[in-house]
Structure formats: structure tokens, C-alpha cells
């Protein structure tokens, strides 16, 4: 549909004649009023002339979007009624108070969208801009895309303006959790949580993870909230053991991190000294037991070695072999020493002599001893030697005396 501009009034063509007549009457009325005001107020005349030739419309909108998402900035216009030949569409980004950047334009039937380097390939018209929808679409939003956008549509000397404020929200970066302080009983422990990036305000919230099912619960009663992301566990005890979770959130999203707390039970000096003393006493007792055992074994071994040298009075006398008359003294001595198996004393020697005398075979006839021989025997007697008187009817037997070496064994 074509339109014509007549005396500053936008009049559509090819309409009903009655409607056109009414429009002309309205425009005539407006001209008359304008002339009257021009006579009274010269300043108002200029303003009326401007508004009579320029149809201006403005709209303001605020949009919030999360980074990496897509957004459409609306811009509706009615300039297509004047024909597409002279239609111009321009999107601007307000960089500063007095500076603007061109984002995308349509002019003379061509689209230009390579003005901003970091927006190339991410911007386009969202719909049929020739039919009255010049909305701008931005793909994969970045924090640098935030700002005030201006949509300006011009056709045949008439303008329409739209203002859109775009705020790009950034999710909190993955938070980092750590502890500060001593994990001993009775000490204070700080739980810290920090997110390096994200749109303010960022909210930090600490919760305790229950052992059963991993459900979140409140912090211990002894905890104290500090600054953002900071919690102090006071007067630590074994009941504070477990895992704690930090929740970081803002308008764009949230993130979490966990930290594990294991309280260490500190042993007192007295307990340590007592344990050391107990170990030393145990080692000392073991040493004494080993010494006593070794001493007992040595004593038993010594007794076993000394037992064969003891003389028992009730022991059986050693067997003696009869010596025939005329046998040499050395032979009798050797046979006597050979038949002895144990050491003898004076009493055992006497018993052996009596046994030998009793078992000897009696002979007929008297036995005479010379006096000199008896004295010689008496003079040869030594301590430890013995000589028993023989019966008159018994065969004389020469009994050698035991030597000193045999007695000392």
C-alpha cells in the first residue's frame, strides 16, 4: 500500500473518499490551529512543524540473559507502510555516553553486519524486517555483549526508536573449598569457600552432609558465620567429624564444593609418659625372666655333672676279684683298679675288705706272720690306706693300699 505525504500529514492512498475527506478536514483544522498559535507563540510554531513532519515513537525494554545463551532484542516498526525502497534499519550499541557502535544495518536492500569484530557470525535479523519486525538476534552471548542497544528505523524522513538494555549474567565459576586452622580437639577451624568469577551478588551457603543418604542438614550449634564463604567451627570435638558442602549461587546459576573434616584426638603428656613407662617395665620384666631361666638351666646342668661323684652310703659295694697267692703286687693293683668304677672312701674300702675275707676259701694249717713283715706293713700304711686283720684259718691275701691319686678323684 502506497502512502503520500500531504502538508505534513500521513495520508494513505486508495482509501474510501469519505475517509479521505474527513482526513483532509482534520488536517485543515490542524493547519488553522497551527497558524493561530504561530501568531501568538513563535517557539511553539517550530515544535509543531517538527512533529508535523516527523512521526517519532520510542520504547524501552530491559532484558537479562545468561552467558552462552541466545537472545532476541525486539524492535517493531510501521515504516514498511511507506515502501521498502527508502527503508533504513540500524542497530547501535551505546558504548559510552557520547559514543556508539554500529552493530548491523539494512540500507538499499543490503545487510551489513561486520562492524564489531567479536560479534561476527553471531548476529542477524530475527524475522522479516521489511514487514515490520526488525528484531535483532544474538547467538552465544558473551559478557562483553551487555549494554544498551538502540534500534533506529527510518523511512521517507520519519524515524522510530527502540531502546533495549541487555544484561548478560555469568554463572558462578566452580567454587574452591579449603580449611584453615588446627584439627585438634578444642581448637577452632575455618571453612572457606570462594568462586573466582560470576555476576554479583554471589550468595554463599554452608551445609552439613549427613552420613545417612547424603542429605544436607544444618551446621553444628558451635559454628559461627563469618564473611562471605567463611564459617568457623568453634571448640572442635569428634561430633564435628564429617563432610560439609558450600553452595554458591546467583541469578544465573549455582555451583558446589565439598570439604571433609576429621578431628584428631590429642594425647596428653601424662598418657604418653605412662605408655613409655609401661613399655620399659615390661621389657625389664622380660629381661629378668630370661636371666632367671638361663641361671636355672646352668644350675641344673652343674648338678647333673656333680651327681656321679657323690658317694651313697646305701650303695652296693663294688665287686672284687680274688687274688691268688704269689701274684705280683702290680697285677693285684691293676686288677683292683680295673674293677673299681667309682670313687671310694675309707668306709667303702673296709666293707670291700670284709667281703673279700668272707668269700675267701679257708685252708688247713696255721698261718704265721713274721714280726718284721708286720712292722713293714705298719710302717707302709698311709692316710687313706687300710689293712684288716685276717682270720687264722683264712688264706692270707695281700691287699694293696689305694694310692693318693685314686683317693683324690
Molecular structure report:
The chain has 409 residues and is an alpha+beta fold. It is built from 7 helices and 19 strands. The chain has helices at residues 17-40, 42-53, 269-306, 329-339, 346-359, 371-380, 404-408, and strands at 3-6, 9-12, 56-66, 71-73, 87-96, 99-107, 110-112, 123-125, 136-138, 147-155, 158-169, 176-181, 189-194, 203-209, 216-217, 223-225, 230-233, 242-249, 254-261. It has a 6-stranded mixed β-sheet, with no helix packed on it. Strand 10 (147-155) and strand 11 form a beta hairpin. The N and C termini lie far apart (156 Å). The model is unreliable at 1-57, 327-394 and 401-409 (pLDDT under 50).
Topology:
Blueprint: E1 3-6, E2 9-12, H1 17-40, H2 42-53, E3 56-66, E4 71-73, E5 87-96, E6 99-107, E7 110-112, E8 123-125, E9 136-138, E10 147-155, E11 158-169, E12 176-181, E13 189-194, E14 203-209, E15 216-217, E16 223-225, E17 230-233, E18 242-249, E19 254-261, H3 269-306, H4 329-339, H5 346-359, H6 371-380, H7 404-408
Parallel strand pairs: 3-11
Antiparallel strand pairs: 1-2, 4-9, 5-6, 5-10, 6-7, 8-9, 10-11, 12-13, 13-17, 14-15, 14-18, 16-17, 18-19
Helix pairs in contact: 1-2
